[in-house]
Automatic annotation (TrEMBL):
<feature type="binding site">
    <location>
        <position position="70"/>
    </location>
    <ligand>
        <name>K(+)</name>
    </ligand>
</feature>
<keyword id="KW-0479">Metal-binding</keyword>
<feature type="binding site">
    <location>
        <position position="172"/>
    </location>
    <ligand>
        <name>(6S)-NADPHX</name>
    </ligand>
</feature>
<keyword id="KW-0630">Potassium</keyword>
<dbReference type="GO" id="GO:0000166">
    <property type="term" value="F:nucleotide binding"/>
</dbReference>
<keyword id="KW-0963">Cytoplasm</keyword>
<comment type="function">
    <text>Catalyzes the epimerization of the S- and R-forms of NAD(P)HX, a damaged form of NAD(P)H that is a result of enzymatic or heat-dependent hydration. This is a prerequisite for the S-specific NAD(P)H-hydrate dehydratase to allow the repair of both epimers of NAD(P)HX.</text>
</comment>
<feature type="binding site">
    <location>
        <begin position="141"/>
        <end position="147"/>
    </location>
    <ligand>
        <name>(6S)-NADPHX</name>
    </ligand>
</feature>
<feature type="binding site">
    <location>
        <begin position="69"/>
        <end position="73"/>
    </location>
    <ligand>
        <name>(6S)-NADPHX</name>
    </ligand>
</feature>
<dbReference type="GO" id="GO:0052856">
    <property type="term" value="F:NAD(P)HX epimerase activity"/>
</dbReference>
<feature type="binding site">
    <location>
        <position position="175"/>
    </location>
    <ligand>
        <name>K(+)</name>
    </ligand>
</feature>
<keyword id="KW-0547">Nucleotide-binding</keyword>
<protein>
    <recommendedName>
        <fullName>NAD(P)H-hydrate epimerase</fullName>
        <ecNumber>5.1.99.6</ecNumber>
    </recommendedName>
</protein>
<keyword id="KW-0521">NADP</keyword>
<dbReference type="GO" id="GO:0046872">
    <property type="term" value="F:metal ion binding"/>
</dbReference>
<dbReference type="InterPro" id="IPR032976">
    <property type="entry name" value="YJEFN_prot_NAXE-like"/>
</dbReference>
<keyword id="KW-0413">Isomerase</keyword>
């Protein structure tokens, strides 16, 4: 049997449903915690603080959280980045009331004194190349369907203007990309780092390997489950939550 290296948006949603279904019984909270934790680990790997000056260490990591679960991954990631010694700031313009859980994630950020900006705040003030280490793009993941609606369209247009000067770390899918077809509509970001969760989506075959470092993270499935969906598990080392592909 040939093994797939990527899974479609449809299959990714099916995998998610089965993981959180009655037979397996993961909760969304559990998977999101591991997903966000792995993205924070990828940021550490890519932008290590060790040996950096105090000025460098004080730079912001600007996390933009969208309205769905990709945004939730961003909220979790920001908390872990703070624990790891970084200086995250979260921009959360459209807050989900889908579940109480998103509010709890915001309370946890308040607990760790991570600023969480609302839509009406001047978020661009935090995005200065000399003051910002990177941007974590947790706007849209595998449920995004173009064309992009406001306020995200305007936000992503601003990110596109900045991305040559501030590196973008995209969570699961670069925002604006069609999950299966890649960057076929605008606006869409061109990330310096992509962290695919569970297994890469087809759009990841469109990244320019010279520009984008690709990690896989979200280490939560056994081999027989992966094989059932036509792919292999990844060779994570030791306790690592990410693997550079
Ligand atoms: N097993 C795993 O790997 C795990 C994966 N996880 C993560 O979940 C992610 C998938 O999350 P998801 O299904 O909630 O969808 P996501 O992509 O966040 O977007 C949905 C939101 O976007 C909106 N929206 C859509 N199109 C739009 C448009 N054109 N313009 C504007 N808005 C638009 C849409 O709005 P609606 O259409 O409903 O009005 C809805 O609010 C996945 O990529 C991974 O990061 C982990 O957390 C757990 C384990
Ligand atoms: K994203």
């Amino acid at each position: 049997m040939s093994t797939l290296k990527v899974v479609s948006s449809k299959l990714a949603a099916e995998i998610d449903k089965e993981l959180m279904g009655p037979q397996i019984g993961f909760t969304l909270q559990q998977l999101m915690e591991l997903a966000g934790f792995s993205v924070a680990q990828a940021v550490c790997r890519q932008f290590p603080l060790k040996g950096k000056t105090e000025t460098e260490k004080g730079k912001h990591i600007f996390v933009i959280a969208g309205p769905g679960n990709n945004g939730g991954d961003g909220l979790v990631c920001a908390r872990h980045l703070k624990i790891f010694g970084y200086n995250p700031v979260v921009y959360y313009p459209k807050r989900s009331d889908r579940t109480e859980f998103y509010k709890q994630l915001v309370h946890q950020l308040n607990f760790f004194k991570v600023p969480v900006l609302s839509q009406d705040e001047n978020w661009l003030d935090y995005l200065k190349p000399e003051k910002t280490l990177c941007i974590v793009d947790a706007i849209f993941g595998f449920s995004f369907k173009p064309p992009m609606r406001e306020p995200f369209k305007g936000i992503v247009e601003e990110l596109c203007k900045l991305q040559d000067r501030i590196p973008i770390v995209s969570v699961d899918v670069p925002t604006g990309w069609d999950v299966d077809e890649g960057p076929i509509s605008q606006p869409s970001v061109n990330p310096a780092v992509l962290v695919s969760l569970t297994v890469p989506k087809p759009c990841s075959t469109h990244i320019d390997e010279k520009h984008t470092t690709h990690y896989v993270g979200g280490r939560f499935i056994p081999r027989d489950f992966a094989n059932k969906y036509g792919f292999e598990t990844f060779g994570y080392e030791s306790t690592d939550q990410i693997l550079k592909l």
